[in-house]
Write a structure and sequence with these properties.
Layout (H helix, E strand, L loop, with lengths): L1 E5 L14 H12 L6 E3 L2 E8 L2 E8 L6 H11 L7 E7 L7 E5 L7 H10 L5 E6 L9 H5 L11 H18 L1 H9 L5
Helix pairs in contact: 1-5, 2-3, 5-6
Length: about 190
């Protein structure tokens, strides 16, 4: 069993913001694989299903980003999952817009959701799909940028970006982390 967690903030206010791209990817995976993500427990919305021949739990923590570890820890404890079974999808300022970067372990890069998960688990040795959102163009504070909707000229790219991240998750499950890293980490921005 694999736990695939998309990070975001709950509520309509944050629905179409850069920080919620992890939720968008989980929604895309759920739709593509007929998984209902409506269970309300473990501080999360979640559902079970199958992707690429693997049993998965798709989850969207329903606590604010900086408390994401609460939901991840609760799900992992209840389903008795190991850290190696965890895959987290999140936005990344330091990855160019539209680029997907798959990593295993490593620092949190200042991402408060990832910090929270590292703290809750006491380690960082899990897979992550970083979805590039790029840096602010107009001098906005980083907090305002990630919690704002996409720039007008980026909105047409969102579907392609979310599709690419969902394909990365599927590739990790189907072919393993190393092969997926080779495929996605070398791709150019669309």
């Amino acid at each position: 069993m694999h736990l695939v967690v998309g990070l975001g903030n709950p509520g309509k206010t944050y629905e179409h913001t850069r920080h919620n791209v992890g939720f968008m990817v989980v929604d895309r995976l759920a739709g593509a694989h007929s998984i209902t993500v409506k269970g309300k427990r473990f501080f999360s919305l979640w559902g079970k299903g199958d992707i690429a021949g693997h049993k998965v739990i798709l989850a969207k923590p329903q606590v604010f980003m900086n408390r994401s570890g609460q939901g991840v820890h609760a799900l992992m404890s209840y389903f008795k999952l190991a850290v190696k079974d965890l895959l987290v999808i999140h936005d990344d300022l330091d990855v160019d817009l539209g680029r997907i970067k798959i990593v295993h372990g490593g620092g949190d890069g200042g991402h408060r959701g990832v910090q929270s998960i590292h703290q809750a688990l006491g380690e960082d040795r899990y897979a992550r799909v970083k979805v590039g959102i790029g840096r602010p163009r107009f001098g906005e504070a980083v907090e305002d940028y990630v919690l704002s909707p996409w720039y007008e000229d980026q909105r047409n790219q969102i579907v392609e970006i979310v599709d690419s991240a969902a394909a990365a998750v599927t590739a990790i499950l189907a072919h393993g982390l190393e092969k997926a890293m080779t495929e996605f980490n070398s791709k150019q921005v669309p």
